[in-house]
Design a protein that fits this description.
The chain is of the alpha/beta class. The chain has 2 domains: 71 residues, no CATH class; 205 residues, P-loop containing nucleotide triphosphate hydrolases (Rossmann fold). The protein is 32% helix and 23% strand. It contains 9 helices and 15 strands. The strands form 4 sheets. A 7-stranded parallel beta sheet has the order 1-9-2-8-7-3-6, with helices on both faces. A 4-stranded mixed beta sheet has the order 13-12-15-14, covered by helices on one side. Helix 6 runs parallel beside helix 7. The radius of gyration is 20 Å and the shape is globular. The two termini are 13 Å apart.
Length: 306
């Protein structure tokens, strides 16, 4: 894309807006108060059986050694590729190895994205090792409430991709805060322990409504940072960015940063081994996080088609 004054101004405005982003400010304050525990080190652990990073290993050890995890819900948040799902899988397997019963759920949208039929799945390491656990599909929080008939005292309830839960066909998805509170109250009545995982913000840097409601109603939150995927950047990634795939009249393909007016929920791939594909999500720090204005996106698309 041609770099011009308009591009710089829009990007500067976007980065400045992230500095004032209410969710990021809230997370910093919550870390200081002890509500949020940050796991920032995404360095791979040599010879780990599922190629986990240091942050996932640390979070797993903290969860398994803490008495609080037997009493209160845990919420995992972070950007794509930050270690949330890896940690969730490690916790599920670790609890089952101790003889604990764990009910596992993932959203129907993840089935479309990953092609799996009811699984929480990660691809780890340079070799792309696939690790997964079977899961029951849900679409709405009300589905999870219905499933609670099977929950028993002492069960762990692992829920992935919670940001996608919706009541109507909205973009981004949203669930009434009272419904989320009802889910948490019901798990407490059943004496079951939820472990809920999801992205805290979309590709625009805006908080997912479901995760915001959830974070206001729990006392234990694990936040994960990955590594910014921008070449030569060494900053930790707090955010998820997206590149939109486009094709011109000659059938040639490329991609560009997504426009601020594009829909939020769209199936795409996660950046893998430095390769970009159409509709790709990747990790970004605040400085490298990019979105285009509608005018910039239109200009890019027109130039690519000439």
């Amino acid at each position: 894309m041609t770099i011009n004054k308009e591009s710089f101004i829009f990007q500067e405005q976007h980065v400045a807006a992230l500095v004032k982003n209410p969710m990021l400010i809230w997370l910093e304050e919550a870390q200081a108060s002890g509500l949020v525990t940050l796991f920032p080190d995404a360095t791979p652990v040599i010879d780990h059986p599922i190629h986990a990073n240091i942050n996932s290993v640390q979070a797993y050890k903290q969860f398994m050694s803490s008495e609080r995890h037997t009493l209160e819900p845990l919420v995992e948040i972070g950007s794509m590729g930050s270690g949330k799902s890896t940690t969730l899988i490690m916790i599920i397997l670790g609890l089952r190895n101790l003889g604990k019963k764990v009910k596992v759920y993932t959203h129907t949208f993840d089935k479309e994205r990953s092609g799996s039929d009811g699984k929480i799945m990660i691809q780890a390491g340079k070799e792309g090792l696939t690790v997964d656990v079977k899961a029951i599909l849900y679409e709405k929080v009300e589905d999870l409430i219905d499933f609670s008939d099977t929950w028993k005292k002492g069960d762990y309830i692992a829920i992935d991709e919670f940001m996608f839960a919706k009541e109507e066909k909205e973009d981004p998805p949203s669930t009434n805060q009272q419904t989320i509170q009802n889910l948490l109250k019901l798990s407490k009545q059943k004496k079951a322990k939820p472990i809920i995982s999801g992205l805290h913000s979309d590709f625009k840097g805006k908080v997912w409504p479901n995760m915001w409601h959830l974070m206001q109603n729990v006392n234990i939150i694990y936040e994960f940072h990955g590594r910014c995927d921008t070449e030569s950047c060494t900053n930790p990634s707090e955010l998820t960015a997206r590149r939109t795939g486009i094709i011109n009249s000659k059938g040639e393909k490329t991609n560009r940063p997504s426009s601020i007016d594009e829909i939020v929920c769209r199936v795409g791939n996660v950046l893998s081994n430095g390769e970009t594909t159409n509709d790709t999500y990747h990790r970004a720090c605040r400085e490298c996080h990019k979105v285009l204005s509608p005018q910039q996106a239109k200009k890019f698309d027109m130039n690519f088609d000439t």
